[in-house]
C-alpha cells in the first residue's frame, strides 16, 4: 500500500517541489495551502489531494487532518514547511509583524503537530519533518527575528525527538541554505525603516549583498530540498538533522569546527559590515 504524506505551504517553492517529488515516487500526497482554489500546477487525482490549511487558523488545521485521514486512511509523514522571512532591524518591525513571524513559523508548527499526534500515537508510527533553516543554527544580519523563530523550532524539534520516540514517532529537521524560491521575493516581509534612518547605510550594504547575483548563484533548487525531505522520510533512521545545500554545509562546517566567533567574524567581513 502507498504511504501518505501531508505537506504545509505546498503552493510554492520547497513545499510544491516536495508534493511533486513524493507524488512521482508513488506516494499519496496531501498538498495543503492557504488558497487551494488558486492552485494550477498541482492537479488532484486519486493520489494527490489539495486541502486548505492556514497554519494561523486552528480549525483549518483540524479539518485538513480529518480530511487527509479520510482520503488515505493512514498518514505516515507530516511536513511542516509553511513559513516566511521577516527582514529588517528589530526596532523597525511592528509588534504585529514580529508576532506574526512566530505565529506562522513556530506556533503554527506547534498547532499542526498537536493536531496530527493523536493519529501518529494511535498508529504507533509517524514521521514529523520540520523545515527549519541553516538560519536555525546560525544567524545572518537583519534576519534576527526570522532566524530566532527557526532557532525556536530547532529547540522544539530536539525536545520532541526525545519525547516521541516511545510512541514510534520520528522527529526530523531539514536545514536548507539559500534556495531559489519565492522566499526572498513575495514572501519576504520587509520592515518599514523610514523612521529609523540610522540603519539606512547598514541596511543598504546588506540588501545589496543579498541581491547580488554572485551571492545567489550558488543557491540550491527546491527539488534538491525535496530530495533531502524524501531521504528523511524514508531512511528509517532516528537522525534528527539534515542539512540541505552546499552553502548550508559550508556554514555549518565553519561554525562547528572553528566556533561561533570565527564564523560570525567571517560573515561580518563577507557582508562588508
Ligand atoms: N528559500 C530559502 O532560501 C529557504 C532557506 C531556508 C529555509 N527555508 C524555509 O523553507 C520553507 C518554505 O519556503 P520557500 O523557500 O519554499 O518559500 P516560498 O516559495 O515563499 O513558500 C512559502 C510557503 O509558505 C506558505 N505560507 C506562508 N504563510 C502561511 C500560512 N499562514 N499558512 C500556510 N502556509 C503559509 C506560502 O503560502 P502562500 O503561497 O499562500 O503565500 C508558501 O506556500 C519556509 O519555512 C522557509 O523558512 C527557505
List keywords for this structure.
273 residues, alpha/beta, Rossmann fold, 7-stranded parallel beta sheet, two-stranded parallel ribbon, 8 helices, globular, binds NADP nicotinamide-adenine-dinucleotide phosphate
Q: Beta-strand level of the residues, as a percent range?
A: 15-25%
Helical content band: 40-55%
The shape is globular
**What name goes with the CATH superfamily?**
NAD(P)-binding Rossmann-like Domain
- Element order: H for helix, E for strand: EHEEHEEHEHEEHHHEH
Given the helix and strand composition, which structural class is it?
alpha/beta
Oligomer: single chain
| CA distance, first residue to last residue | 55 Å
CATH class: Alpha Beta
Number of domains: 1
Query: How many individual β-strands?
Result: 9
Largest sheet: 7 strands, parallel
CATH topology: Rossmann fold
Strand order of the largest sheet: 3-2-1-4-6-7-9
CATH architecture term:
3-Layer(aba) Sandwich
Q: Counting H and I runs of at least 4 residues, what is the number of helices?
A: 8
Mean pLDDT reading? 97
Amino acid at each position: 500500500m502507498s504511504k501518505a504524506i501531508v505537506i504545509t505551504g505546498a503552493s510554492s517553492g520547497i513545499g510544491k517541489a516536495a508534493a511533486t517529488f513524493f507524488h512521482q515516487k508513488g506516494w499519496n500526497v496531501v498538498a495543503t495551502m492557504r488558497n487551494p482554489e488558486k492552485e494550477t500546477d498541482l492537479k488532484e487525482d486519486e493520489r494527490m489531494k489539495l486541502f486548505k490549511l492556514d497554519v494561523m487558523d486552528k480549525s483549518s488545521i483540524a479539518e485538513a487532518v480529518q480530511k487527509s485521514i479520510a482520503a488515505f486512511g493512514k498518514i505516515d509523514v507530516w511536513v511542516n514547511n509553511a513559513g516566511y522571512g521577516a527582514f529588517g532591524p528589530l526596532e523597525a518591525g511592528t509588534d504585529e509583524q514580529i508576532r506574526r513571524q512566530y505565529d506562522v513559523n513556530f506556533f503554527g508548527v506547534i498547532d499542526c503537530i498537536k493536531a496530527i499526534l493523536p493519529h501518529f500515537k494511535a498508529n504507533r508510527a509517524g514521521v514529523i519533518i520540520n523545515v527549519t533553516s541553516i538560519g536555525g543554527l546560525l544567524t545572518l544580519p537583519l534576519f534576527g527575528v526570522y532566524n530566532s523563530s527557526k532557532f525556536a523550532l530547532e529547540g522544539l524539534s530536539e525536545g520532541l525527538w526525545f519525547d516521541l520516540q516511545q510512541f514510534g514517532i520520528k522527529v526530523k529537521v531539514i536545514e536548507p541554505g539559500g534556495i531559489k524560491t519565492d522566499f526572498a521575493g513575495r514572501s519576504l516581509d520587509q520592515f518599514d525603516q523610514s523612521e529609523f534612518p540610522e540603519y539606512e547605510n547598514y541596511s543598504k550594504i546588506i540588501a545589496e549583498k543579498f541581491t547580488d547575483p554572485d551571492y545567489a548563484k550558488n543557491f540550491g533548487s527546491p527539488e534538491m530540498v525535496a530530495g533531502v525531505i524524501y531521504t528523511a522520510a524514508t531512511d528509517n533512521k532516528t537522525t534528527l538533522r539534515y542539512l540541505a545545500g552546499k552553502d548550508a554545509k559550508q556554514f555549518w562546517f565553519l561554525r562547528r569546527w572553528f566556533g561561533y566567533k570565527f564564523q560570525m567574524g567571517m560573515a561580518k567581513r563577507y557582508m562588508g559590515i
